[in-house]
From TrEMBL:
It comes from Selaginella moellendorffii (Spikemoss). This is NLP1-9 GAF domain-containing protein. InterPro entries: NLP (IPR045012), NLP1-9_GAF (IPR055081). Residues 2-183 form the NLP1-9 GAF domain. It comes from the Eukaryota. GO terms for molecular function: DNA-binding transcription factor activity. It holds the Pfam family GAF_NLP.
Length: 193
């Protein structure tokens, strides 16, 4: 995986955003998921975050990984959950991060422990660590061009839809204040890729 100066700057920015959101909203853990294009030759992966149709056409499928990506743990009891996530990938549509990536819309779930294993392969880890609600947002940086990032935030307890909508609005506002180059993608951008 090639780490350019631009990607390093984006990772620093994401780290600051994850910390700001967790500290402001008293969240125990946040992590970044990166798109990964698989080229179909067994275990070999092309580790790039460019998921434009041209790049995606050359791959078998896109999955998400969090290994070596920015994360923030405000409560050390949850560091094991991040390590478990780093050992696995998610397919598009799996878990809150996979849904945010696939839909290009902020995604909220009131309790990740309610997922079925097929919907979220990491659900047994979420249950073990007693995580609750979660929010994920797909972003793109003006520094790295077509590279996308999915930021995922976990709550320590279940949260209802009204509380989740309010939290999503608050998290978005905190992210906008802390962000310099990251922004949500528009549907128009995705259509023109």
């Amino acid at each position: 995986q090639i780490h350019s100066e631009g990607r390093h700057a984006v990772y620093q920015e994401i780290s600051e955003i994850l910390r700001a959101v967790c500290e402001t909203h008293k969240l125990p853990i946040a992590q970044t998921w990166l798109p990964c294009l698989h080229n179909g030759s067994g275990n070999e992966e092309i580790l790039v975050a460019d998921t434009t149709p041209a790049a995606a056409a050359a791959s078998d499928h896109i999955s998400l990984f969090t290994r070596d990506a920015p994360f923030y743990v405000s409560d050390p009891r949850f560091v094991g959950f991040h390590h478990a996530c780093a050992d696995h990938s998610l397919d598009q549509g799996q878990g809150v991060a996979g849904k945010a990536f696939a839909s290009n819309k902020p995604c909220f779930i009131s309790d990740v422990k309610n997922y079925l294993i097929e919907e979220y392969p990491l659900v047994h880890h979420a249950r073990y660590f007693k995580l609750g609600g979660a929010v994920a947002i797909r972003l793109r940086s003006s520094i790295t061009g077509a590279e996308d990032y999915v930021l995922e935030f976990f709550m320590p307890a279940e949260i209802d839809s009204a509380g989740g909508a309010a939290l999503l609005t608050s998290i978005s506002a905190t992210m906008q204040r802390a962000s310099r180059s990251l922004r949500a993608l528009s549907a128009e951008e995705l259509r023109h890729e």
